[in-house]
Amino acid sequence: MMPLVFSRPPPRYRVPHDRIGLRLAFAIHQAVSRAFEMIRADGYALAIAGENQITERLENTLENRVWNKGEVEAFDHHFFRSVSRGSEVVNFDGVKISKKPDLVFKLRREHRVDWDQCQDAVFAECKPVDRQHSLTGHYCAVGKDCTGIERFIIGDYAWAMEEAFMIGYVRGGHTIGRDLPPVLADAVRHRQLGSPANVEVLETSPLNHQTDRLHRTVHQRLFPWNNDDAATPIEIFHSWHECG
Fold first, then answer.
1. What element of type H or E holds 181?
2. Domain ranges within the chain, ordered by starting residue
């Protein structure tokens, strides 16, 4: 006789978790930028590396050489627990139990027993942006090809949070301010990407010539929380880095 498998709804933790705010968003952006500086200085061939290879090197550098090493203010053990790649997480309703965001920046807020600690993190999707990886085909893909922003809109990632990151691996001179707005505004995918109103620049100047300025978009989300309330909008920070 086959054993019975019982399913039960997830505990009703309080959502959303508190925002991380701009200070920690900038810390993550600066940490990723510093990690790329180190990777380039090592002579790593970013121009020919694949998406998974870059993400692995980025995780390793962030965790072992940037986090809590005094390289970036606030990117330390006071605010973050770890950086991990491909960690399995559960989606908003517990149906999908093996979702794998590219990078997870775990937050140090363990005292909040009313929160789901597995979900208290800054989730990041990392995507190439170049001639072979168009924004419409990867970063902003929707439907069955959903690989980027839409994962936050449908509650696969960061469903308990109100902020998340998209990290771009850029080749060919693409910029956020020029290339992202028309794709997000396109009626073909606008609603599925959460109907963002605009792309807001958050910095007056880039950190260096190989890092675009940090931008932010706000997206409506298309799923309910476990108390049947509609999920609040999510802010997505866009952090693009030259990998050519």
1. helix 176-185
2. 80-242
Beta strands in the chain (DSSP E): 80-85, 103-107, 121-129, 163-170, 200-201, 215-219, 234-242
What is the pTM (predicted TM-score) of this model?
Answer: 0.94
Enter the tokens of residue 96: 């999908």
Torsion angles phi and psi, residue 80, rounded to 5: -125, 145
* pLDDT tens per residue, range 4-35: 555 555 568 999 999 999 999 999 999 999 99
> What's the rounded mean pLDDT across residues 69-75?
98
Instruction: Please state, in angstroms and as integers, the Cα–Cα distance from residue 29 to each residue in 26, 43, 51, 106, following that order.
Output: 5, 22, 18, 15
pLDDT of residue 7: 56
- Cα 152–Cα 156–Cα 157 angle in degrees, nearest 5: 60
Overall average pLDDT of the 111-134 stretch:
97
- What's the DSSP call for residue 35? H
Measure the CA–CA gap between 204 and 82, rounded to whole angstroms: 29
Please count the other Cβ atoms lying within 10 Å of the Cβ belonging to residue 50.
10
